[in-house]
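pasting for the record
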Amino acid sequence: MPTPDLASLAVGDVVAERTFDLTRDSLVRYAGASGDFNPIHYRDDVAASVGLPGVLAHGMLTMGLAVQPVVDWVGDPARVVDYQVRFTRPVVVDPDHGAAVSVVAKVGQLDAEASAARIDLTVTYDGATVLGKAQVRVALG
């Protein structure tokens, strides 16, 4: 996939959208890959005992999923030069229905001198934003 052309972009353009369906199986697989076996990510009783509304998706899993549409759009993960988020709300993964995390990536700023763009992510679950100030800086030149 060719690198997007800076000249063809405008602030406000939607460059990528995707919904990720998480299941409890997704959480177990991520725990194995990451080594994060905190039981709040797979046991309802433990999550409830610490006051959580249910089993939560790993924050880093949510963060990783959120940037993937931008990586796919830009065509090369090395073009992502900065990525920042603020965790604002947990993603509760229902044992039967899972959780759908939606990502919309829009151009937030263009930097012609650096041939770069800031892509702002809107990441939601159940109608609420779960990552605040989610911004990805990508090199386009």
